[in-house]
Prior knowledge:
- By secondary structure, the chain is an alpha/beta fold.
- The chain has ten helices and six strands.
- The chain has helices at residues 42-54, 73-81, 98-108, 122-129, 134-146, 167-176, 193-202, 206-211, 214-217, 221-227; strands spanning 11-15, 59-63, 88-93, 112-116, 153-157, 180-184.
- Helix 2 links the parallel strand 2 and strand 3.
- It is globular and about 45 Å long.
- The structure holds S-adenosylmethionine.
- S-adenosylmethionine (SAM) binds at residues 20, 26-27, 63-64, 66, 92-94, 116, 155, 157, 184, 186-187, 189, 231.
Amino acid sequence: MQDPFGRTIDYLRISVTEACNFRCVYCAPNGYAAPKISPLTVEEIERVTRAAVALGVTKIRLTGGEPLLRRDIIEIVRAVATVEGVRDLALTTNGFLLARLARDLADAGLNRVNISLDTLRRERFAQITGIDAFDEVWAGIRAAEQAKLEPVKINVVALRGINDDEFADFARLTLAHPWHVRFIELMPVGANDAARDFFQRYFISAGELIARLPELAQSDAPRAIRRDYRH
Length: 231
Ligand SMILES: C[S@@+](CC[C@H](N)C(=O)[O-])C[C@H]1O[C@@H](n2cnc3c(N)ncnc32)[C@H](O)[C@@H]1O
């Protein structure tokens, strides 16, 4: 399967729920809207996966909302992992429920996880996400590593004036742990004036971000950061 630019499409993201237990400032700037549609069933997710694999998809990512809120997430993972032709099954999570689920997810066939973490400071974490859960997420990251859901990737949305003094701390984490830290540019969400103001106030470009990592700017790291931008 190719897009009109001749790029091969072998990657599919499946949103398994709209529901979320976090209220991140950038994701829900207009407030959290309760889910309006019922989520795909396990059988429907498996059917979509089979159809996609038949078209050449080999990599699947489960996302949301917060996918670990699904009570049947282990069944979902098992169903997708057992579809012949799925070579890489990943999941993006806020990490809150990961400590208790990591082992079962791995046993069900999940290969790896991306965990969203925008700050290493507890108070800031609560301000960004609306929930005081830094410790739970950190425990989730450690559990993912122990369950070999590797490489463990940490997604950091760069936010001017909120976490832009922590970029080097995040980068340094990769020296102490086998984790990948990936900085993500803020995307505009919503079309009203408040959403536009929010974006203008907090957006930091990848170029500025790299320039603000003095230790890394001297090395090969910026090239690696530019190459690996999918989340
Ligand atoms: C929408 S969340 C869904 C999966 C899961 N709940 C999580 O927190 O990872 C997926 C990723 O999108 C990021 N994200 C959400 N809104 C964004 C925005 N406006 N700009 C950039 N990234 C955003 C989150 O930080 C997270 O890393």
